[in-house]
Amino acid sequence: MNQLHKSINEKVEISEQDFNEFLALTKPTNIKKNDFFINEGDVAKYIAFVNTGVLYSYYIDDKGNKHVIQIALENYWISDLFSFLSNEEAIFNVQAIENSEITIISKQSFEKACDTIPKMERFFRLLIQNAYINSQRRISKIYGASAKERYLKLVQSHPQIVQRVPQHYIASYLGIKPQSLSRIRKTILE
Amino acid sequence: MNQLHKSINEKVEISEQDFNEFLALTKPTNIKKNDFFINEGDVAKYIAFVNTGVLYSYYIDDKGNKHVIQIALENYWISDLFSFLSNEEAIFNVQAIENSEITIISKQSFEKACDTIPKMERFFRLLIQNAYINSQRRISKIYGASAKERYLKLVQSHPQIVQRVPQHYIASYLGIKPQSLSRIRKTILE
DNA sequence: GCTACACATTCACATATGTTAATAAATGTA
DNA sequence: TACATTTATTAACATATGTGAATGTGTAGC
Questions:
Q1: Chain B residue at shortest CA distance from A81
Q2: pLDDT tens, A136-159?
Q3: N or C terminus of chain A: which is more exposed, having fewer CB within 10 Å?
Q4: Which candidate in A139, A148, A149, A169 is best for mutational testing of the B interface (most B CBs within 10 A)?
Q5: Quick one: closest CA in A to B69, which residue?
Q6: pTM over 0.70
Q7: What is the DSSP string of A62-94?
Q8: Strand C: which bases are under 7 Å from protein Cβ?
């Protein structure tokens, strides 16, 4: 059972046959460090499952500042879901932080999977639901906690991210400047 | 055509018949100012559509601070969607800010509607999708902008909220203290 | 109409994060 | 290996928001 199969199976029990049918609709792809998976302004044609490596999504605000939205390690999905689902222009960029192996699914295949494999429709609905829930919870936590607390929580819940992702991405994900994260890390060491 | 019908019709074209079938699954309810629609720790049994009035959701953090998550005026839906969909304990409270007329739907009716009225299943999926998208966009904007900018954006996009909702709720929604909002409003007037 | 209570404003001071700039360390590439 | 580039650290100072307390203003209920 490969990673994708395992990951789907965690949410819905899926038969070998259904999974293979789904797998036939996907495409394994390599993406090099710093290459773009999605460009802001384009319509997101794919969603990606990360087999190995790291991708991240971010957007550039009016003032030209970059804000990291999501960091996807192995076994996570990433895209500009809004754009993918609505066919409108993406507002996020998605880019590889490391050379990565991903499995991608086109909009067309996604819809076919939803139409013909009920378990997969259910899976994707749960995926969106969870994405929403996490997003809500993240908002609720952003406000409550200081940058230091947010960093410590990230270290605790996603040590892998802290180990493998350059600090300035993490700073941006936490909503602070790299210098501030550096200062915060210093106070933690003491 | 009542507000609920109109609101659904904005997302999916629904026949009179389908709508009436759906309506039969709902229950009009009055809720008084400061009454709870959902209590943190309970499972959210209903979602609510606001016909008149205002409800809001919030959570209380470890330190006892209250954080407003959503403010729902007329034509908006509100609940702890996570709890409603997953049957787990709610982490948010939902409470009326004004005496309000709402239309509520139980989990059972929600599922029945999804099973028997395809348009309604589609509607609810879109509702969750949109909730997710708004949530994502909200995160992306929290970090980019100062409290003053966030307030000005709220005034522009939801003037009704600013007019009708007490300031300390708005401050909390923006992630700042009432005193800070007061100070910010003063600088805007100058 | 009074009284109490919630809400809003203002101020002085504390604190966290931003900004700018210099430097050091790490990494990629010729 | 050496050089250029990116990333991380540090410091001094600027700014925004928090905190606590006092005061003012409105509003609900008696």
A1: B133
A2: 777 777 777 899 999 999 999 999
A3: C
A4: A139
A5: A140
A6: yes
A7: TTS-EEEEEEE-TT-EES-HHHHHH-SBPSSEE
A8: 7-12, 16-21
Look over chain B and give the mean of its residue pLDDT values, rounded to a whole number: 92
CA distance from start to end of chain B: 45
Number of Cβ pairs closer than 8 Å across A and B?
80
Helix or strand holding residue B38 (H, E)? strand B36-38
Q: Is there contact between A181 and strand D, defined as CB under 7 Å from any strand atom?
A: yes
The residue ranges of every structural domain in chain A are 3-140, 145-190
How far is it, in rounded angstroms, from Cα B60 to Cα A24? 46
Q: Which residues on A lie below 8 Å from B139 (Cβ)?
A: 69, 135, 138-139, 142
Question: Could you tell me which residue, A27 or A189, shows the higher pLDDT?
Answer: A27
**3-state DSSP call for residue B91?**
coil
Chain D footprint bases within 7 A of protein beta carbons: 7-12, 16-21
**Confidence label for B125 from pLDDT (cuts 50, 70 and 90):** confident
Query: Domain spanning B3-117: which CATH class is it, in words?
Result: mainly beta
User: What element of type H or E holds A178?
Assistant: helix A178-189
Residues B113 and B1: their CA atoms lie apart, in Å, by 20
Q: Which fold has domain A3-140?
A: Jelly Rolls (2.60.120)
| Å from the A56 CA to the C30 C1' | 30
Q: Return the number of other C-beta atoms located less than 10 Å from residue A20's C-beta.
A: 11
> Looking at chain B, which residue has its C-alpha nearest residue A177?
B143
